[in-house]
Amino acid sequence: MDVWDSPVFDEHEQVCLFSDAPTGLKCIVAIHSTRLGPACGGTRFRPYQSDREALDDALRLSRAMSYKSALAGLPVGGGKSVIIGDPRAIKNRALLHAYGRCINRIGASFATGEDVGMSVADVETVAEVSPYIAGTSANSGDPSIPTAIGVMHGLRAVVKWRFDQDGFHGMRVAVQGLGAVGRGVAERLHAEGAQLIVADIREDAVAAAVEQLGARAVPVSDIHRADADVFAPCALGGVITEASAREIRARAVAGAANNQLADALAGQILAERGILFAPDYVLNAGGIISGMQALNTIPGREEAKVPPLEESLAAIHDRLMRIFARADAQGKTPAEAAEQLARDIIGRGR
Question: Mean pLDDT across the stretch 300-305?
């Protein structure tokens, strides 16, 4: 497995592969950039089909974390960790402690927390052996809540830019994924008058949304084709492919999932069809913004400047509006404009 051969390798500063035979732990930590500060990024625990798939996910997600932090104006870089395996089968206290010891070998250049397959309780177990952990109840807490709040601020910008409407009353929003963040977004949209269309691989999550939020359920395979104003991917990434980009019926795509575009071509197709795409790493920055609240508890980061949380989350709205305007002025897609701006900020350094 050659890191340099990966199509998503982007001059990453450091890639570490760890294993622990007694517990069966296999994990990859990718640090994309520390030019703006020590790297931050969550830990994803998934049954990847191959080590290559896991590596590419870590590389792609760590780069997105660099962009996310840069555009949010945070003094941190981007990193990501992935644990390979089915968390329902192999996750236990011993494995999480072994993982924490791996993080300790990297040191203060990387701090991590919760992501897919990891709960706050899991993160707290890791924190029993590692100080380089954010997202515990003792510091920043569950990141899904600020992430959902930040997504809502971003969705308001999308609705204003695309539909010239303030708020969500009467808007039809198709939410793909009803996990912690997706459910939080759906609840807030419902409270503000949106009409929900939902899909999730878990039947109980869908049933709850139908009963409690008045949502209409559709199969996961059809949610991107739903007759909606906004399509909100809130599950795993890569859902907008060349094929699905041609099938989306909504006039805007904006959700919490990371790396929603499978490739640049998918973004171009959306633009050609007049569909507004909100770069996911701008929209879902609430988790890392919240994580900043914990940085002064992590060794080596006591001097981190922590912006007010509510103010930082609300800023996602204006940041997206500026990116949309910049994209129009430059004749680029919003994804291209956001990426170039992020790379410019990282290139300038601190």
Answer: 57
